[in-house]
Amino acid sequence: MLIAPSAIEVDSSGGVLLVDHDGNATAVPEARLPFLAGGGRPDGPGYFSMTALQGIKNGRVEGPVTIYLSVEGGKICIERVDTL
User: Fold this and answer.
1) Most confident among 9-18, 40-49, 58-67 (mean pLDDT)
2) Helix H segments across the chain?
3) Rounded to an integer, what distance in angstroms lies between the CA atom of residue 52 and that of residue 62?
4) How far is it, in rounded angstroms, from Cα 6 to Cα 39?
5) CA 62 to CA 79: how far, in whole Å?
6) How far apart are CA 30 and CA 33, in angstroms?
7) Residue pair 76/2 in contact by the 8 Å Cβ criterion
8) How many CB atoms lie within 10 A of CB 67?
9) In sequence order, what are the residues at sequence separation of 6 or more whose Cβ sits closer than 8 angstroms to the Cβ of residue 23?
10) What is the mean pLDDT of residues 53-77?
11) Which residues of 25-37 are buried (b: 16+ CB within 10 A; e: fewer)?
């Protein structure tokens, strides 16, 4: 489903490792999981984004992760990952 090297993997510490199409890895530690995913906002033909939110603490959203995706021939490519 993902075009290599794009990947979503569970690491040995229980976190998630997100790898974009350039091979850049972003680790989401277990303490920030699980998170809710939403969005799917189209960013143009074949491109969309999804934001994952861990939750709210003290009235503030903790740990947003935005994943930018593209669709190529029915497969998904992780273009980049942004964390705050």
Assistant:
1) 9-18
2) none
3) 10
4) 20
5) 23
6) 5
7) yes
8) 23
9) 5
10) 73
11) ebebeeebeebee
Q: What's the count of helices (H) and strands (E) in the chain, helices before strands?
A: 0, 9
Answer for the pair 81, 20: CB distance below 8 angstroms, yes or no: yes
Distance CA 30, CA 40 (A): 24
**Amino acid (one-letter) located at 77:** C
Token pair of 37 as six digits? 């995913």
Task: Please report, for residues 1, 27, 66, the alpha-carbon distance to residue 63 in angstroms, rounded to integers and kept in the order given.
Answer: 26, 12, 10
Most confident of 4-8, 38-42, 44-48: 4-8
Q: From the centroid of its chain, how far is CA 16? A: 9
Give the three-state DSSP class for 30: helix
Query: Which is it for strands 16-19 and 60-62: parallel, antiparallel or unpaired?
Result: unpaired
